[in-house]
Amino acid sequence: MSTRVFRLGMVPVLLLILASGLGCTPGTPAKTMSAPTQSQVPAPGDAAADQAEADAAAAIKAAAHKAATDKAAAAKAAADKAAAAQASGKAAASKAAAAKAAASKAAAEKAAAKQAALDRMVVYTTSGGSSYHQSFCSTLRGESPFKTTRAKARAQGLKPCSVCGSF
């Protein structure tokens, strides 16, 4: 159908579209829709109609099955991704805990080494004194100090001197 439509607004265009859908041409009266005749309605038990209906039902069922399968696959992928993220987080936490434990162990070893060095340090004691001293302590003047280790002095119950600041 070839018709010329001049732009006079949307109303004439819509009327032409509606008229062409009803099988009318411009200038002819519109036909009214009537109920289908007996020859247009398939008879019950018509094999072609039954087959078409079955095909349509099968297509709907296949589409629903595909949608359900796609949804399940998406849910599984999301669950797998979450599990991988959780495993990664646990591995990172475990690695951080191991690093913290190693640092703590290193600090404890360093402190033990420092304590051992202090215990081997030479200090001086006096007979009848209650503390141990470093070699330059002013309280040792005029005394006859005894040379010993810090560990032995502490084992005897002696305390560090408050003047020289023995450890």
Low-confidence stretches at least 5 residues in length (pLDDT < 50)? 5-11
Main β-sheet, spatial strand arrangement: 1-3
C-alpha Rg (nearest Å): 51 Å
Q: Any idea what the shape is?
A: rod-shaped
The rounded distance between the terminal residues' Cα atoms is 112 Å
Helical content (DSSP H or I, runs of 4+)? 55-70%
Per DSSP, the total helix count is 3
Main sheet characteristics:
2 strands, antiparallel
**SSE order, one letter for each helix or strand:** HHEEEHE
Protein described:
The chain has 167 residues and is mainly alpha-helical. Among the domains are: 70-105; 119-160, no CATH class. The chain has helices spanning 10-21, 47-120, 150-155; strands spanning 122-125, 131-132, 146-149, 159-160. The protein starts with 9 loop residues before the first helix and ends in a 7-residue tail after the last strand.
Features of the shown structure:
single chain; 167 residues; mainly alpha; two-stranded parallel sheet; 3 helices; 4 strands; rod-shaped
